[in-house]
Amino acid sequence: MSQPWVPFDDRGLSYGDGVFETILLCQGRPMLWALHVKRLLEGCRRLAIDPPDESALAATWQAPPGGEWEVLKIIVTRGSGGRGYAVPEVATPRLMSRRVPFQPDPSAWRQGVGVRICSLRLARQPCLAGIKHLNRLENVLARQEWQTPAYREGLLADSHDMVVEATSMNLFWQQEGRLMTPALDQCGVAGTLRAGLIEAQHVVPAQLALDELAAVNRLWLANSVQGVWPISALWSSEGACLRRWEPPQDDPLQAVAHPLLGYPATP
């Protein structure tokens, strides 16, 4: 059960010392639950936090549904205590959760979205690559780079100018008939929808340099809550339009991704 407040000395609040998951519920049932649990447990392992047991995690969603679609957020922190950055000898991890109503955006599925390249570059840190830890300050700074609704998302490259992700979604592209996504062994969040597509061999991890981005056949953004958004226009950080794409009539990524979320394969 979620507690209504966080103590001042909670290490998640003080240092980002914890992990979180954001999960789509369809009529009360969590989509991609096994992959969310797997990533949360991997994050706890990397940070050396004792993970909650699976019954405690399952209790976060085992309640009557509040509508057709909801979003469940789960946060696990190391708990309270410790002097400075040193972790306490005995820590009691804290589990918190919240469910809120959600409405997907079918217009983005059908018409696509405009995105911009962010000026901020992600730092490489393999120890944290892939997990969804609580320190998302790079994403917060990147999201402050634009206010106009013409851009629904911002694309992030790392310090070596390799494309990594968007501020809150994974990136996918098609080239020569293959569906690909950035390999996230240096930085970035390995999304659960991305993991499901890789496991099913629909998508393969690859490298994509920033200066190659505008030349691919097609681009998409996707995550386990919003589904798949085709990219219809790509803008530079200076505001120049680099490329436009027509949304596909039969979207090959939506066809394999949306059934994993309970969304229609052809919106």
From TrEMBL:
Pathway in which this enzyme or protein is active: Cofactor biosynthesis; tetrahydrofolate biosynthesis; 4-aminobenzoate from chorismate: step 2/2
Catalytic reactions on record: 4-amino-4-deoxychorismate = 4-aminobenzoate + pyruvate + H(+)
Q: What class of enzyme is it?
A: lyase
Keyword RNA-binding applies: no
The keyword Ubl conjugation appears for this protein? no
Query: Can you tell me where the transmembrane regions are?
Result: none
Q: Which cofactor does it need?
A: pyridoxal 5'-phosphate
Single GO molecular-function term?
4-amino-4-deoxychorismate lyase activity
Q: Which keywords appear in this protein's UniProt record, sorted alphabetically?
A: Folate biosynthesis, Lyase, Pyridoxal phosphate
As recorded in UniProt, its EC number(s) are 4.1.3.38
State the oligomer form and interacting partners.
Answer: Homodimer.
Identify its protein family.
Answer: Belongs to the class-IV pyridoxal-phosphate-dependent aminotransferase family.
Which PANTHER family does the UniProt record give? AMINO-ACID AMINOTRANSFERASE, AMINODEOXYCHORISMATE LYASE
Q: What is the designated name of this protein?
A: Aminodeoxychorismate lyase
The organism is Vreelandella gomseomensis
What does UniProt list as this organism's lineage?
A: Bacteria, Pseudomonadati, Pseudomonadota, Gammaproteobacteria, Oceanospirillales
As recorded in Swiss-Prot or TrEMBL, the protein's gene is named: pabC
